[in-house]
């Protein structure tokens, strides 16, 4: 089979004829889509990043940049939407049950509240007939965090409760430059809301910050399929900087004010994902992705003009990689099954560890099942995240000394989604 005569079609995994001649055509189109349900979530890996945006990708260990063949490509690699035909609407729901446990050096234990938390995903794609242009729009949460340790831990003056909602509205346009090469790009309009609570040292009472903000960025992707057996993809997402405006309140009492108008800025890092997909036959797809996040740009969060003045939260994160691997097997009659694995490096140094973001090197395993049909598709996936124990042993002079101890992670999550085609 000559690489000059064939390329791989998306979902059906059939082999179809095509050529290498490129006929460039440009077109822009604006889309709108309402989003009605959003909630913060516990982040299972990568500080407060949430890379799990579709069950087909999750089942493959999020190794999706070089496949990207359903509407969630808007997140994983916007160039991939050129593989779709007609109009596609995909709606999904990701539900995670966080599992964070703490043991102090003296043996005191605590478990973070672990109620299941739902996170929705919505995508729409339209590929124009007889034109090499596809457009789409997605709404999803690429970052998220929600942990409630309660008010009776040894580190309650460092952290009691924190939540982060980050919602992205992401229109994209993609161009099939030639039958084997596509590019895609689109802006992101990002809304975020954050809440942080902690006990007040040397007294009774709590300090709470509550604020929100908006910022803008973009994501872009390239998908190259030089041969039916090989596909290469790259996805880039720009950094954003949310400037939160809100209120800081305290229950310690006079002489401090009960509440003040305050502000804080949080950096959300850029990241790059590169993937290679190998398809030895139409029934198998093996993919490996390398995902790099620039967490080193996240240095410190200053909560300004609180009732007690400026309160710094030093993080000094370090950049890290996720190593993602997935396998998909076509089972016939449109059914498929997938398994995946991720190793996620730790981004948080011991010296600046905070229980609000109990980052650790994680092992993540996943599996999933679904079907591609003529008028609609569906998929369901499960994954877990595990770390057997990260021990923090900072000196008594360290600001977060009360947080010393061992932190263990075991998260469980399920994602379901359906695509309607018309």
Any overview of this molecule?
The longest helix has 5 residues. Helix content is 2%, strand content 57%. The N terminus is likely disordered. Strand 18 and strand 19 form a beta hairpin. It starts with 5 loop residues before the first strand and ends with a strand. It has 2 helices and 22 strands. The chain has one domain: Beta Barrel (Porin), CATH 2.40.160.
Structural class: mainly beta
Structurally, the number of domains stands at 1
| Biggest sheet character | 14 strands, antiparallel, barrel
- Uncertain stretches of 5 or more adjacent residues: 1-41
Report strand %: over 45%
Order of helices and strands: EEHHEEEEEEEEEEEEEEEEEEEE
Give the helix tally. Answer: 2
Helical residue percent band: under 10%
- What would CATH call the architecture? Beta Barrel
Q: How big is the Rg?
A: 23 Å
Q: What overall geometry do the principal axes of the alpha carbons give?
A: elongated
Q: What is the number of strand segments?
A: 22
Compose a concise summary of this entry.
Helix content is 2%, strand content 57%. The protein is mainly beta.
List keywords for this structure.
about 425 residues, mainly beta, Porin, 14-stranded antiparallel beta barrel, two-stranded antiparallel sheet
List the helices and strands and how they pair.
Layout lengths: L5 E3 L6 E3 L37 H5 L13 H4 L9 E12 L2 E4 L5 E3 L5 E11 L5 E16 L12 E18 L2 E19 L6 E22 L2 E8 L2 E11 L8 E10 L2 E8 L5 E10 L6 E7 L2 E6 L5 E13 L2 E10 L17 E11 L3 E17 L12 E17 L1
Antiparallel strand pairs: 1-2, 3-6, 3-22, 4-5, 4-22, 6-7, 7-8, 8-9, 9-10, 10-11, 10-12, 11-14, 12-13, 14-15, 15-18, 16-17, 18-19, 19-20, 20-21, 21-22
